[in-house]
Design goal:
The structure is a single chain. This protein has 97 residues and is of the alpha+beta class. It has a domain at 40-97: Nuclear Transport Factor 2, Chain: A (Roll), CATH 3.10.450. It contains 2 helices and 4 strands. It has a 4-stranded antiparallel beta sheet, covered by helices on one side. Mean pLDDT is 74; it is low at 23-40.
């Protein structure tokens, strides 16, 4: 009896998980029109760029400046080492050599 109840509960849970993973009905947008601040695609403001750099594991961000091409450059610390970082116009953070 206990095994039947456990098996039934597992079946219900697996069906719920499968239903939650199904794609939305066609015509329903799957991504927001504007990504949340700090997420890739939002390298427009200094605060969103700082958030993106921090989300990439960097700390002590300084000398953050925007370049003519829309990218951002800064100095930041990761693993107790100060490095140069760049954030492109889509919000991707890369360490500059």
């Amino acid at each position: 009896m206990k095994f039947s109840l456990i098996a039934a509960a597992a079946l219900v849970a697996s069906v719920s998980v499968a239903a939650a993973q199904m794609p939305p009905a066609s015509g329903t947008p799957t991504t927001p029109a504007v990504p949340p601040a700090g997420m890739p695609g939002t390298a427009e403001s200094e605060s969103s760029v700082r958030t993106q750099i921090e989300a990439s594991g960097y700390q002590k961000i300084r000398d953050l400046t925007r370049k003519a091409d829309g990218s951002w450059h800064a100095r930041a610390t990761k693993n107790d080492v100060e490095v140069a970082v760049s954030v492109d116009s889509t919000g991707n953070v890369t360490q500059v050599q």
